Amino acid sequence: MQQTLGDASRPPAERLAAYFDEIEKRVRTQDWGIGCLIPDLAAETSSYGDELRDLLARVMERQTAAFAAVLREMVDPMRADNLAGVLLAAWHGTLLRMKVERTGEPIARFRKVLDLLVR
């Protein structure tokens, strides 16, 4: 995340796009069958113990904060935190759908909606 979202030499919209570009490149080479370990673990293990669930929640909070930092430069700062949470949840859902469909179509749909959200 730091390489893309944290790259202050790029405009915020470009940083956000670069983040998703990097992940899309990785999953494309794996025939759309891999995603992000965090939502995968959360879906499978969140009911198996508070320690793991708390760890995953902290990771998701850091991910949300990284999105929010970029979004504050793009949208009304009052919207940025909520939008960052929605963005992360939508991205995690996109990766799940991508793995099931084994295509890049869910990512293409996500990008279209992303453009609408950050206007």
Describe this structure as you would to a colleague.
The chain is mainly α and 119 residues long. The protein has 6 helices and no strands. It has helices at 2-5, 12-29, 37-45, 50-71, 77-101, 105-117. The radius of gyration is 14 Å and the shape is globular. The model has no long low-confidence stretch (mean pLDDT 89).
Treating each run of at least 4 consecutive H or I residues as one helix, how many helices? 6
Order of helices and strands: HHHHHH
Mean pLDDT: 89
Oligomer state of the chains in this structure? single chain
Residue share in helix:
over 70%
Structural class: mainly alpha
| C-alpha termini separation | 22 Å
What general outline do the C-alpha atoms trace?
globular
Report strand %.
Answer: under 5%
Radius of gyration: 14 Å
Low-confidence stretches: none
Give me the count of strands: 0
Main sheet summary: none
Summary?
The protein has 119 residues and is mainly alpha-helical. Helix content is 76%, strand content 0%. It contains 6 helices and no strands.
What key phrases describe this protein's structure?
single chain, mainly alpha, 6 helices, 0% strand, globular
Task: Set down the secondary structure blueprint.
Blueprint: H1 2-5, H2 12-29, H3 37-45, H4 50-71, H5 77-101, H6 105-117
